[in-house]
Design brief:
The protein is α/β, with parallel strands linked by helices and 589 residues long. The chain is built from 25 helices and 16 strands. Helix 16 crosses helix 17. The chain binds phosphoenolpyruvate and magnesium ion.
Amino acid sequence: MVCPWSIIKVVKTLKGIPASPGIAIGKVLLYNESPTAIPRFHLSEEDVKSEVERLKQAVERAAGDIQLIKESLDKDAKDQHALLEAHTLMLYDPCFNEMAHERIGKELKNVEWVLQETVNSLVEQLEATQDSYLKERSSDILDSSRRIIDHLLNRKRISLGKVEEEVVLVTHNILATEMLQLDRRKIRAVIMDVGGKTSHTAILARSFGIPAIVGLKNVTEQVVTGKTIAVDGGEGIVIVDPDDDTLENYRHKRTLFEKKESQLYNITDLPAETTDGKLIRLKANIEFPAETDQVLNINAEGVGLFRSEFLFMNHNETADEESQYSSYREVLETMGDRPVTIRTLDVGGDKLISEIESQHEANPLLGWRAIRFCLEKTQIFRTQIRALLRASQHGRLQIMFPMISGIEEFEEALALVDEVREELLGEGVPVKGDIPIGLMIEVPSAAMTSDILSEKADFLSIGTNDLIQYSIAIDRGNEKVAHMYQPLHPGLIRMVHMIVQNAHRHGIPVSLCGEMGGEPLYTPILLGLGLDEISMSAYSLPEIKKIIRSVSIAETEELLGAILEMRSYREINDYTRLWMEKRFGNSGQ
Ligand code: PEP
Ligand code: MG
């Protein structure tokens, strides 16, 4: 008799953070070296010199590797070149190298050990900050140092550029530079022990269209190379060694996902028009100029939010006028006659540049940030405005100021733009005459005075990420209060309603550019609220367009009418989900 237990196969399911959507099935390719495999031994005084020399040579070789990757990349892949450039700079960082040299001499330990220790303590410091940007820099440091250590130990890595069969890459972490080399035809998904949604790996996986799951904690200990694995990147689920039924189920899911994707792309050329004929402008949010290719691919009507601060963060110093000018010009020229809304520097809070880093404010989110910083650091602000106004000749520029809290700030910023315009014209530099200038509504006081602000602005754009944070009084990056981050809070819905009404009364359009705009569940409510434009990540746009094309303004207004009577976000949430399910089934959400 066959014991029943022997025929039951245990299917192991792991849950991580969804980082890039899509379904993949493949054999595991475990790609990892144990971080403990670093040797540790004592040096004598006379060995120190040769040990320092070994470090120098390993740095040179690591820089050579990066150069080779750069040469293999497409010239237009500007972000990827910039990333590699940053890693090369990090390899030669004098502060980091001096620290390692000093420790070798003082502690008389071998270089790979010292390097590992130095990196660990730097990474620990960065990881301890509340700042997601700094946290992400730790993966860049790990990336550069692992490359040096590989050379010191003569450690050869499997090449990820040429993989024989379809695999799912399973790794503790992956260097961002290695992500750039991935054989994208064969590597069907990437899953990792560590990482967050905004890590470089996640960002690159999304831009390559590869499903990815991060933060799986110890997936590398739960699989071996060659085992079959199924991945649902959208749900953050990994099935190790799936049985036949599960495999069949995942194949079916994959077909559905691919079908849905291609159907969504089928509507690329169709307008975002409701069934009763209202056209909604759908635009894309970008952080880097190279993202405009994807914006054009999905046929967005423009860029609704270019977060210009990423240019500054990428440079790790204040970006100069010329480099800003060429980035703005590039985006404007690529987008041609489609409008591009460039937001002026929105630093502070969770986005630091060197000028703010040293401030150590008790409440940075309520502190010296965005327009407050710019109106004080007028040299930085003027430089940005000069670059923007000069670039205005090359496309349809719109300028937008972040974190405006009241009319004084907006008027001050407008006056500064006028001054810079006069200055440029005085120098004989041409500036376009009709650049629309607007502001972001992200602070409750701006929402409450949106009637006054609308008298002076050419447009408003609602930044719900911050407006929710400031109106419900919860830090948007703090997981302890994440459950309170509720876009459907009646307080927020009422506020958006009021902003739209005020803007329309003054004859100006309103956009919404927070993450809420890319969530299908919220689309009918945003339509009912009367938004003229929604700007979101390029990948969300086709799905949002599909929803818009399936509903009428009349029915969304009816939905909104019902919602405005409700008392709690739970009630609104349940009601809206049901509403969506009736129209789109579960896949509508
Ligand atoms: C927002 O606050 O909604 C917004 C779009 O700006 P950011 O996410 O860059 O703060
Ligand atoms: Mg914001």
